[in-house]
Specification:
Blueprint (H helix, E strand, L loop, with lengths): L3 E5 L4 E4 L10 E8 L4 E2 L6 E6 L8 E7 L4 E4 L2 E6 L7 E14 L7 E10 L6 E4 L14 E5 L2 E4 L8 E8 L9 E2 L3 E6 L15 E5 L3 E4 L2 E6 L12 E7 L1
Antiparallel strand pairs: 1-8, 2-7, 3-6, 3-9, 4-9, 5-8, 9-10, 11-13, 12-19, 13-18, 14-17, 14-20, 15-16, 16-19
């Protein structure tokens, strides 16, 4: 969320008022006003929230007639929400106070007469990755014992308001102790980092560091096959899953 968002709450809200306001009278008149801003509670950070609304009108202040039968008011709410510049907590809770501004027959001196607690969660933005569904490697032989092809991967973090640090992990099809994608007596298929030139282990643990991503970043690891001495002719297939992580 960037800038400020103004919107009307979808449901009516009923706010209760304390009985001490009557002070034994059958009816009193109370001036009320929403506090300028709602206060974050329980460690909430990242948002500025303002609330308005009395008698289903987009108003900051009003006057209420109270009695034993009407120690409450029901209204629609209008909220104004903006970012504060702090990091945004996932769980959000804010206290929005209604102040008593004028009171007959006794002054109330801007005391809080009702509280609204807003509780919600912020969905954490996610990055996405895209790549080829399949990579076909050139054939290998005794004269050309190794071949490779690029596996282009795009990482998109454009939904973030800051640049997260991203890594990838690789989980290979055929389990092997050395982290290759496929390994038998004839051939080895492995992923190679385009940054280090070393094997990117397909163990689901080793992190491939993409780095800080602000919009879209592309990397091009290699998929490489190598035949072994005395290998038999054949075709081989390996499958793998790439998982994205954010730090």
């Amino acid at each position: 969320m960037l800038g400020r968002i103004d919107f009307a709450w979808s449901d009516d809200v009923t706010m209760s008022l304390p009985a001490y306001l009557l002070k034994g009278a059958s009816q009193v008149s109370l001036g009320v006003q929403w506090a300028d801003t709602c206060s974050p509670v329980n460690g909430s950070t990242g948002l500025n929230i303002k609330v308005k609304g009395f008698r289903n009108k987009d108003e900051q202040a009003d006057s209420l007639e109270l009695s034993n039968a009407s120690l409450f008011f029901t209204t629609k709410l209008w909220l104004s929400v903006s970012q504060s510049g702090q990091s945004m907590s996932t769980k959000q809770q804010y206290e929005c106070d209604v102040k008593g501004t004028e009171y007959w027959p006794v002054s109330i001196n801007n005391a809080t007469v009702s509280k609204l607690i807003l509780t919600f969660e912020i969905a954490r933005p996610t990055c996405s990755i895209s790549t080829l569904k399949a990579v076909k490697l050139p054939p290998v032989s005794k004269l050309s014992p190794s071949s490779s092809a690029e596996l282009p991967i795009s990482v998109d973090c454009s939904d973030f308001t800051s640049s997260p640090t991203v890594f990838l992990t690789l989980n290979g099809g055929q389990a092997s102790d050395d982290g290759s994608l496929y390994d038998d007596s004839n051939i080895t298929i492995e992923a190679i980092s385009d940054k280090t030139g070393l094997r990117w282990k397909a163990d689901g643990i080793e992190k491939y560091p993409v780095g800080r991503v602000d919009t879209v970043t592309k990397i091009t690891p290699l998929v490489r096959s190598s035949i072994k001495e005395g290998a038999n002719a054949g075709s081989y297939k390996a499958t793998a899953t790439i998982t994205l992580g954010v730090e």
